């Protein structure tokens, strides 16, 4: 097995220079660096990662803690994180906090004890124990998808990366009001999550834009999961004056809502229309095709890695929050004609009581 000394001999440099190239501990002239890299490739040399971490105090690993990894949205985020980490020479350690505050702190502690260089975490609805641990140990961390800004009981000294939530949800609602709907139900997410609060705010904003009153009974929490959405949808349909349109606030809740509508023999969009936050791979395969807000999932993951690496390079810079835009994907579950959705334009206004 070739050694670092073999690489140095082949490249015509010192062992110290090979070490500086591998560990990035000192600038090396471009032609010298390339000679070392060529020798490594030619000899098939494999660096000793453990030895390197002892020299640099870095393991070149990132810890990722996100719940519901099986959810297509988080699966795509994971793919974005993994690709960006690999591109920059980092490995990935993954844990699922299950949206449970106590378990969240435990798995983050375990990742930290594995000496990851930094963490990317999608915080739970009550992240106080998590943030206290991260702050106490000064762990470089990027909060992903769910932000802390705006909560009066918690201040975030951490970088944050998330999608826009309020305006895209308002756009769904105003699209429906433009089609004539006056009673629009919202199957909301898990209370306490920033994504839930922001999408509820967008729902209010969309109603206000149309001059419609906010009615408490038209918003029911589905707790960000399919079973909860089934209960929420059933409650909305049981109202004395049920909604003529539904907005579901994530992809899992869309599945739950559709399951209830089908069980009750209700046709979308003939009996009730449906729009959803979160596009997913098979949304275009449903009949009707689902009108949705598409989040830039992979881009969110990749951006979180970039922000974390910037933090590692400049530990003292101020924390920042990065917001990425979403896209309105116009299809036919909102009641628009196929040709209108294909053109991305609203269809004929419908008349609803």
Describe what you observe in this structure.
This protein has 353 residues and is an alpha/beta fold. It contains 13 helices and twelve strands. The strands form two sheets. Strands 2-1-3-4-5-11 form a six-stranded parallel beta sheet, with helices on both faces. Helix 5 (72-87) crosses helix 12 (297-313) and helix 6 (101-113) packs parallel to helix 7. The longest helix is centred in the C-terminal third of the chain and has 17 residues, at 297-313. The relative contact order is 0.11.
Helix/strand/pairing category? alpha/beta
Number of helices: 13
Shape: elongated
Helical content class: 40-55%
Rg over alpha carbons: 25 Å
What is the element string, with H for helices and E for strands?
HHHHEHEHEHEEHEHEHEHEEHEEH
Strand content: 5-15%
Strand order of the largest sheet: 2-1-3-4-5-11
User: Poorly predicted ranges (pLDDT <50, ≥5 residues)?
Assistant: 346-353
**Mean pLDDT across all amino acids:** 89
How is the main sheet built? 6 strands, parallel
Distance between the termini: 78 Å
Count of extended strands: 12
Indicate the topology.
Elements: H1 4-11, H2 15-23, H3 30-43, H4 49-56, E1 61-65, H5 72-87, E2 91-95, H6 101-113, E3 118-121, H7 128-136, E4 141-144, E5 159-163, H8 166-178, E6 184-188, H9 194-209, E7 219-221, H10 226-237, E8 245-248, H11 251-263, E9 273-277, E10 291-294, H12 297-313, E11 321-324, E12 327-329, H13 338-343
């Amino acid at each position: 097995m070739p050694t670092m000394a073999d690489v140095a001999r082949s490249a015509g440099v010192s062992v110290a220079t090979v070490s500086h190239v591998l560990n990035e501990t000192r600038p090396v002239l471009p032609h010298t660096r390339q000679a070392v890299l060529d020798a490594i490739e030619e000899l098939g040399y494999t660096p000793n990662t453990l030895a390197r971490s002892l020299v640099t105090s870095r393991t070149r690993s990132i810890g990722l803690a996100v719940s519901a990894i099986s959810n297509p949205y988080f699966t795509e985020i994971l793919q974005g994180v993994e690709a960006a980490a690999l591109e920059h020479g980092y490995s990935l350690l993954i844990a699922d906090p299950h949206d449970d505050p106590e378990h969240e702190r435990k798995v983050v502690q375990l990742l930290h004890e594995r000496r990851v260089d930094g963490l990317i975490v999608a915080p739970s609805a009550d992240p106080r124990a998590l943030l206290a641990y991260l702050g106490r140990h000064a762990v470089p961390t990027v909060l992903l998808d769910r932000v802390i800004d705006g909560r009066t009981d918690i201040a975030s000294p951490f970088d944050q990366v998330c999608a826009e939530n309020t305006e895209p949800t308002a756009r769904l609602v105003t699209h429906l009001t433009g089609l004539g709907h006056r009673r629009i139900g919202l199957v909301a997410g898990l209370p306490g999550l920033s994504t839930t609060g922001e999408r509820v705010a967008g729902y209010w904003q969309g109603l206000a834009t149309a001059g419609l009153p906010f009615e408490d009974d038209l918003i029911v929490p589905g707790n960000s999961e399919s079973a909860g959405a089934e209960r929420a949808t059933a409650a909305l349909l049981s109202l004395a004056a049920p909604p003529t349109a539904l907005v579901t606030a994530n992809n899992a809740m869309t599945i739950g809502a559709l399951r209830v509508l089908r069980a009750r023999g209700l046709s979308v969009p003939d009996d009730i229309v449906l729009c959803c936050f979160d596009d997913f791979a098979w949304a275009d395969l449903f009949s009707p095709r689902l009108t949705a807000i598409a989040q830039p999932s992979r881009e969110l993951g990749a951006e979180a890695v970039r922000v974390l690496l910037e933090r590692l390079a400049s530990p003292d810079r101020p924390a920042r929050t990065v917001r990425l835009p979403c896209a309105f994907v116009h299809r036919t579950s909102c009641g628009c004609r196929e040709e209108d959705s294909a053109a991305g334009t609203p269809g004929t206004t419908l008349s609803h009581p």
